[in-house]
Specification:
Number of strands: 5
Number of helices: 6
Low-confidence stretches: 1-27
Strand order of the largest sheet: 3-2-1-4-5
Strand content: 15-25%
Radius of gyration: 14 Å
Shape: globular
Structural class: alpha/beta
Distance between the termini: 37 Å
Length: about 150
Amino acid sequence: MTLRARLACLILPFGLAIAGCSEPRGPLDPIGEHLGDWVLVNYWAEWCKPCIHEVPELNKLDGEDGITVLGVNYDGVTGDDLAAQIDALDIAFAQLPSDPAAELGIDRPQVLPTTVVIDPDGRRVATLVGPQTAETLREAMEESGG
C-alpha cells in the first residue's frame, strides 16, 4: 500500500474526529469544508471499467485551484480494503466516509460512474451519469455559472 493510500484513509477520519470535538458535524461536513470551491462528488467502484478510466481525469482536476474532487466508494468498502483499491486504481483524491446521496438530495446512483457537481456556494447544480473527462466536467461547471 502506498503512502498516499494510507494517508487518504487515515487523514480524513482523523480530521473529522478533531473537527468533531468543537461542534456537532453532519455527513456533508467534508463537502462543506470546501465552500468556495467547485466540488465534484464521484461515485466509483473497482469493478467499474469506466470509473477506472475516469480516475486520471479526476486526479488532474483535483489538483487545480478552485476544484475539489471527493470520492464515494459505491460498495461501501472501508479501511485496508479501501486503501488497497485506492492504491490499485491510483486515486489521488480524498474519499468521503459515507454515501452523501440523501444529503445531496439525490437517489443513490444506479449507474456508475456518477459525478455530482456542487458549486462554490454549496448548491448541487448537476448530476452527470457515465464517464466524464476533465473537459466535460469543466463544461458542466461553466454551464452552471462557473
